[in-house]
Amino acid sequence: MPAPRTTLRRSLAATLTLPLLISALGACGYGSQAKGEDKSVPVAKGEKVGGLDEVKVGYFANITHATALVGLQEGFFQKELGGTRIKPQVFNAGPSEIEALNAEAIDVGWIGPSPAINGYTRSKGRNLRIISGSASGGVSLVVNPDRIASLHELRGKRLATPQLGNTQDVALLHYLAEKKLTVDPTTGKGEVTVLRQDNKEIPNSFKSGAIDGAWVPEPTASRLVTEGGKVLLDERSLWKDGKFVITNVIASQNFLTEHPDVAEALLRASVKTNAWIKANPEKAKASVNARLKRDAGKELPAEVLDAAFKNVEVTDDPLAASLRDSAEHAVGTGLLKDPLLDGIYDLRSLNRVLKAAGGPAVPDAGLGIK
């Protein structure tokens, strides 16, 4: 994304300016358990990897987490794990997933770049590593065309993002700053009003006219289009080669140290899942919807699923340079202070898996463990 480069001080004493970025969700726990055993999905059998009984994974019931959805639904993860049982948990927000990782309630998780950066920074680089990419793209600014006809008409409008300080919130604030539109990063008040609402609430706010548009991930963006919205800006147009990280795979450092073979088995499954999704897009869409029904209680309408799926690209590459730039954008908007990025990546296992599969290694933009 074109922007003046901000110098990042990767200090071990790094602190966030927004404590609520790491607040957990309500008293109902970190995340919901996946529903009961599905006989169509492989169960744990055979030899346990490294003798481990189970591995706990977290993800969102979201198109941008298609690798996790399909990998679980089609059994790619369980097949690689053999007798080691995979135990999934569904989350609604990044901060709660980071809390779960810190509490060892999960071992591995699919998550966006901002909560990964925030979690790593707050722990002074001791809690997690990014071990793989998962998805790129899938974010748009969707507006009511009767209220906003062009990008030159944002002043005075009300735009929503899913959460204060989340990946889309950072992207919108950075974009507005580039357009010389001032917004207080904490309150969202300014020449454009930025409202932080849950993805589930945004379509209703849009339909009622409470907001004029929203900078949101899939499938929320495509939901808004079905409500009469227009895609005014696809975020891919702002990034080099149209690629930017929307979902990473993270793992607890303790888990990586104690069970590297299990982590590598999960990465083999992730790479195989992404290859299968690319080779079988129609089957993959059906698999995503089946898992969404299992995890969230309902499927996506065909028109939403089709549009959303086209806008998200699964990838093994973590697109590390785009994560670095996202951190700089957060600093520039005042949402983040002194992010710690050195050592956030450990791509050694992923690159072994990719080499074994005949693929090229992926870079860590100089942010890998030394």
Concise synopsis of the structure shown:
Helix content is 36%, strand content 17%. It is an alpha/beta fold and 370 residues long.
Tell me about this structure.
With 370 residues, the protein is α/β, with parallel strands linked by helices. The chain is 36% helix and 17% strand. The chain has 13 helices and twelve strands. The chain has helices spanning 66-73, 76-81, 94-102, 113-122, 167-178, 202-208, 220-226, 253-258, 260-279, 281-296, 302-311, 320-333, 348-356, and strands spanning 32-33, 54-60, 85-91, 108-111, 128-137, 139-143, 158-161, 193-196, 213-217, 230-234, 245-252, 312-314. The strands form two sheets. A seven-stranded mixed sheet has the order 1-3-2-4-11-5-12, sandwiched between helices. It has a five-stranded mixed sheet with strand order 8-7-9-6-10, sandwiched between helices. Helix 5 (167-178) links the parallel strand 7 (158-161) and strand 8 (193-196). Helix 9 (260-279) packs across helix 10 (281-296). The chain is globular and about 60 Å long. It starts with 31 loop residues before the first strand and ends in a 14-residue tail after the last helix. Residues 1-30 and 35-39 have low confidence and may be disordered.
